[in-house]
Amino acid sequence: MTAKKNSKKGVRKSVKKVAKTSVRKTSKTTPIKKVKTARPKPVAKKNVSAQVKTSAPKPAKAKKEMIPVLDLERYEVKTVCETGVKDNFVGSTRFAWIGSGQCGGRIVKAFYDLGYKKAVAVNTTYHDLDLLGLPPSQKFLMDIGEKGAGKDMGRGQQAAAQWRQDILHLTRKTFGTEVDHVMVCFGAGGGTGGGSAAELVSIAKDYVYSIGKTEPHKHVGVIMTLPTNGEANSPQVAENAYQVAAELGKMASKGQISPLIIIDNEKISRMYPGKTVREFWPSVNNTVAGMFDIFNRLSSLSSPYTTLDPVDYQSILKAGGCAIMGLTRVEKYKDRFALSSAVKQNLEKTLLSNGFDLSTAKVAGCIVVGGRRMMANTPNLQDNINFAFDVLADLTGKATIHRGIYEDGREALRVYTIIGGLDFPTQRVEELLATQMVTA
Ligand SMILES: Nc1nc2c(ncn2[C@@H]2O[C@H](COP(=O)(O)OP(=O)(O)OP(=O)(O)O)[C@@H](O)[C@H]2O)c(=O)[nH]1
Ligand SMILES: [Mg+2]
Are residue 350 and residue 332 in the same domain, yes or no? Predict the structure, then answer.
């Protein structure tokens, strides 16, 4: 019999028979057995009722050295460490993903394809799940007896509430314990994603708490898309989107989630004209995932110049409120004003929503990546880059700016910006309702 079994047996016995035998049994295996007084004296019969006869003798007056040694003492509490599904990306932060509805599923799939393998997709219809290229064990049907939520957010909410424990179990199994941040992804406007979003955030918080994060609200964020104006012509889509965006906006402002990243499909559809139907969503989702990944990746690398380190990056992720990201390639990097105006445009060219007030930012990261030869040979480039950082500091109302300067093999200068702790863009979300009224 193994030591473990022995110990278990010992524990069982001592639990069952603690009253009668714990002192006697343990005394067999420990030095204390030699202390004669270890065996409790029988209680005088005249004071004992029938019921008391079978209960424990009072150990209260036992001397210190007589405290029995239980097998349990030999156990050591080991930190539970489960790997879950193995990731395959380079980055400073270990993300896990929960996607709900068709949009959420496709976004997490884009991250999965970049190597973020800790991704699960949930839906109320197996049709969407079947089309999603994730392993079957990472897809979950929230079966509510209907094929989908049909844009009814009540059904999406009900589905997640009904399957809460199973989803929590799936996250634990898939993600393991080695995770820093969970992102819940969905499209505002539909029934499944929008309806289940708040419940899934709560499940994600339970999950991160279960792996030892004492401040779950700092480890659970959301990626939410807003519908195009065309989609928002439908009153139900507009109303759904408004409702769920307002709800998550409140959660972000109160610091109950961090960060809230808003992808504005209307803005993107204008930036990507001429795409075929088949190309459209994958190219949007891959761009979003790629940009998100860049910051995680760069913050894990060291630089001979200035490093934006994992702590800097995570301070942006944990700043509460909304976050936006942008990327610009700068052609005229020798001109300091061209570089700084690129930083400004960068924020406009962001795939994300308009309507953010940059002066409400709490913390930002700006990373400049240039080619090796350019970094070695361009006079004043350091000054130009510093000037661009200063411009960003001004634009963001003196938010803390974490800076990074990196080099690679591409002879092009690129500026990546991430801004966190922003106020919710209330006006943009109210426009959704206005769109519907104007076109009705
Ligand atoms: N960025 C992006 N947005 C998407 C994608 N698919 C859908 N959306 C957006 O998400 C919104 C919600 O659509 P779905 O995700 O299909 O809705 P659902 O959550 O499945 O809800 P029901 O179908 O009503 O159960 C749409 O109005 C689109 O604006 C996608 O792949 N990428
Ligand atoms: Mg759907």
Answer: yes
Q: Which residue has the higher pLDDT, 122 or 394?
A: 122
Contact present, 234 and 254 (Cβ < 8 Å): no
Q: Which protein residue has the closest C-alpha to ligand 1 atom 10?
A: 187
Other Cβ atoms closer than 10 A to 144: 18
Per the structure block, which two tokens stand in for 395?
């634009």
Cβ of residue 195 lying under 6 Å from some atom of ligand 1: no
Give the distance (Å) from ligand 1 centre to CA of residue 189.
Answer: 7
Residue 385 near residue 292 (C-beta atoms within 8 A):
no
Tell me, what amino acid is at 131? Answer: L
The bound ligand whose nearest atom lies closest to the alpha carbon of 196 is 1
Say if CB 260 and CB 252 are below 8 A apart: yes
Do 63 and 109 fall within a single domain?
no
Distance from residue 192's CA to the centre of ligand 2 (Å): 6
Q: How many domains does the chain have?
A: 3
Alpha carbon of 108 to ligand 1 centroid (Å) = 13
User: Do 235 and 100 fall within a single domain?
Assistant: yes
Q: Are 276 and 202 within one domain?
A: yes
Instruction: State whether the beta carbon of 151 lies less than 6 angstroms from ligand 1.
Output: yes
pLDDT, tens digit (0-9, with 9 covering 90-100), for 4-24: 444 444 444 443 443 343 334
Q: Is the CB of 105 under 6 A from ligand 1?
A: no
pLDDT in tens, 286-311: 989 998 999 999 999 999 999 999 99
The pLDDT of residue 155: 97
Over the stretch 348-407, which tens digit does the pLDDT of each residue have? 666 566 788 888 999 999 999 999 999 999 999 999 999 989 988 988 987 999 999 999
The CA distances from residue 304 to 372, 388, 406, in Å, are 11, 19, 7
Here the tokens at position 164 are 């809460």
Supply the pTM of this predicted model.
0.82
Task: State the closest ligand 1 atom to the C-alpha of 193, by its place in the atom list counted from 1.
Answer: 19
DSSP class of residue 357? -
Of ligand 1's listed atoms, the one at least distance from the Cα of 226 is 29
Owning domain of residue 30: 3-74
Q: State whether the beta carbon of 381 lies less than 6 angstroms from ligand 1.
A: no
Distances (CA, A) of 184 to 108, 189, 204, 225, 259: 9, 16, 8, 12, 10
* Ligand 1 centroid, distance to 294 Cα (angstroms): 25
Among 97, 98, 103, 283, residue to substitute to test ligand 1 (most atoms within 8 Å of Cβ): 103
β pairing state of 260-264 and 363-371: unpaired
Tell me how far the alpha carbon of residue 149 lies from the centroid of ligand 2, in angstroms: 7
Atom of ligand 1 at shortest distance to CA of 156? 25
What CATH number is attached to the domain comprising 264? 3.40.50.1440
Residues 104 and 175 in one domain: yes
